[in-house]
Amino acid sequence: MTKKIERELTKKQTRRQEELIALQSYNLELHQPVAPKKPMEFKFDKDKADSFAFPVGIGNTVLERKSDGYCVHISIDQDGEDSVKFYSSGGREWNPDCFPEIMDELWCLRSGYYHGEILGVKPEGVERFTSLDEFTAIENRPKLNASKVTDELLEKYPLQLHMFDLLRLEDHSLLAHPFRERRGGLEFAVGAGDYVNPVPQWTANTEEEMQKLFLQAIDNNYEGLIAKDPTSLYVPGSRNSDWMKLKHFTTFDLAVLGVYETEESKKAGKPFSAVLVGSYNAATNKYETMAKIKIGKKQDQEAIMKQVHGLADTMGLYEGAIAANNSIAFNSRMAKIKRKIPNKVINNGYMPIVEVKLLDVTYTENWHSCGYDNGKAHSLRIPTFVQLRTDKQKVSDITTTKQIKEFYRG
Q1: What percent of the chain has pLDDT over 90?
Q2: Nearest Cα to 378, choosing from 293, 256, 288?
Q3: What 3-state DSSP class applies to 39?
Q4: What's the start-to-end Cα distance of the chain, in Å?
Q5: pLDDT band at 123 (very low <50, low <70, confident <90, very high)
Q6: Rounded distance, CA 404 to CA 290, Å?
Q7: Closest by CA position to 354, among listed 396, 382, 381, 387
């Protein structure tokens, strides 16, 4: 056992006692949205079995399918007038009638509070269906106005619901129960259906078993796996090593802080050519820059701009960037590299969130401010825009500087 694993096991033991105390006073009510528990990022090499030593060593031996859909909490109260309610990961209430194929099966479930993910299901006649297709389906389905759910949409973008946790069953809160018990309750409450099912689950007790299952998941076009500790508790809003993402590539959900305009983008009638993205530092309450990322498609650019309600022109000056928004931390090195200064900075307080794929995180002398210390900061190696995350609209949905540091240390 490595020292890193020993340290993490000690942290888990201490955290578990603290969680039990905190959950004693937590009142989980039906039809009241709660912050979801989230998995942390994990860096590994899929081609090396010993890369999986850490999750196996700290007891995360339960593996579940990782899909690219929308995280939801579902509250079912068979004794109430509005028996089923949907809540997004940000706590926004959705109209259940927007999901008729799913609702047909939810009506039959017992009262409780469920955590799951809505994603696309492979339509008939389609040969290849990827994790991006899973996301595209739910992205294109209305969430609030059921009158916009046409037969054509239902046929083109059919949905399914993967249930992966049970927070409450009837009148009993299960938050302080270990995950293995919550999963047992979930399988008892949710049977095998056409559109609603417990998420597929496997067990891996060795590094080799975990690697094999991960490679099989990738071959099946899954986004990856989630490695979970069967003894973990459900603390709303928490993100720690009890749940860990195992993905074919790493992605972060970063805030759009500013935009870059070029003569070429203006001639093409595009809003911009690239964006400045960054993490959120919860300790300082500031956004910290990490990368300048090109976004080629006009439709992606326009979708981002629809979420922007205020832009301040920097005039291409470092001083202009600083003055535009004091909630963004800038590195003074930016002033020496004019092309890195965004033409406009978002200054309305709300930052759109984009999913960014990357090869790795670096820590060098550069022009960014993420985790800045002694002249060095974190930046992204070969970052690529994946998509705008319209389902994530809170500061708590943004990858934090602390998480970036932990990912870098490995």
Answers
A1: 80
A2: 288
A3: strand
A4: 16
A5: confident
A6: 10
A7: 387
- pLDDT value, residue 376: 95
Which helix or strand (DSSP H or E) is residue 104 part of?
Answer: helix 100-106
Q: Which residues contact 381 (CB under 8 A, 6 or more apart)?
A: 358, 359, 360, 361, 362
pTM check: above 0.85: no
Superfamily of domain 3-248 in the CATH hierarchy: DNA ligase/mRNA capping enzyme (3.30.470.30)
Contact 51, 85 (CB under 8 A): no
* pLDDT of amino acid 366: 95
3 state DSSP class of 142: coil
Cβ-in-10-Å burial (0-12, 13-18, 19+) of 46 comes to middle
Residue whose entry in the numeric block shows the structure tokens 């970052």? 383
CA angle 405, 46, 4 (to 5 degrees): 45
Strands 196-198 and 159-169: parallel
Q: Domain residue spans in the chain?
A: 3-248, 251-409
Q: Is 340 helix (H, G, I), strand (E, B) or coil?
A: helix
DSSP string, 179-218: HHHHHHHHHHHS---SSEEEPPEEE--SHHHHHHHHHHHH
Eight-class DSSP state of 332: G
The predicted pLDDT at position 88 comes to 93
> So what CATH class is 251-409?
mainly beta
Query: How far, in Å, CA of 301 to CA of 286, rounded?
Result: 24
Other Cβ atoms within 10 Å of 38 Cβ, number: 15
Q: What is the mean pLDDT of residues 293-314?
A: 94
Pairwise CA distance, residues 9 & 54, whole Å: 10
Q: How far apart are CA 370 and CA 101, in angstroms?
A: 44
DSSP letters, 13-31, are HHHHHHHHHHHHT----TT
What's at 107, amino acid-wise?
W
State the virtual CA torsion across 391, 395, 396, 401 in degrees, nearest 10.
120
Q: Which of 397, 404, 353 is nearest to 381 (CA)?
A: 404
